[in-house]
Amino acid sequence: MHLFEVIQESKVAEELTTISKTCLATGARINEVVETRGSQLLKHKVIFTNTKGKRNRTVPISNKLYKELHKPTNDKLFSCGYGVAHKWLTKALPDLPKGQTTHVLRHTFASHFMMNGGNILVLQNILGHQKIEQTMIYAHFSPNHLSDAITFNPVTQYSL
Questions:
Q1: Where is each Tyr recombinase domain found (predicted)?
Q2: What is the DSSP-derived secondary structure letter of residue 4?
Q3: Which of 91, 98, 101, 117 is deepest in the core (most CB within 10 A)?
């Protein structure tokens, strides 16, 4: 079953959907998103302050997500906390190894960012990593994407 279908069973489905979409759109950790306050939301960007690295980071967001998140408040944007979000994510993705559930949306963001042509240094900044090696762990590629090395290498392109 699809993540967004499973969370529709929850009493806080709308919030869980927005939390999941925000994680997928920003690469933020679940706890960073559920702790976000209205004052951290600026036009087309969100400032994550409750970060693992203890450093604020600003991530751009689409106009559509901004409208979905925006509330005229300095309070938390979400009433449900990390525990509720984790519970439903685990229910939606039961086959993940223990400890991977909370990072799956972050990994998904990073992989798609890179597969769609993103720069790894920009990704490092978005994810808030101090060392590029940390970012490289998140930026894993699917085996199909790696086959692009054959298609896009200069020997193939220039028929050498």
A1: 1-151
A2: H
A3: 101
158 domain-assigned: no
The span from the CA of 36 to the CA of 140, in Å, is 28
Count of domains forming the chain: 1
Task: Return all residues near 58 (Cβ < 8 A) that are at least 6 apart.
Answer: 42, 45, 46, 47, 48
* CATH code of the domain covering residue 72: 1.10.443.10
Domain with 33 in it: 2-145
Task: Pick the closest to residue 19 from 11, 29, 9, 10 (CA basis).
Answer: 29
Residues with catalytic roles: 29, 52, 103, 106, 129, 138
Show pLDDT as tens, one digit a residue, over the chain (160 residues).
488 888 888 888 899 999 999 999 999 999 999 999 999 999 899 999 978 888 899 999 999 999 999 988 889 999 999 999 988 888 888 888 777 777 889 988 998 898 888 899 999 999 999 999 889 887 665 556 556 666 666 666 565 5
Closest CA to 12 of 78, 77, 58: 78
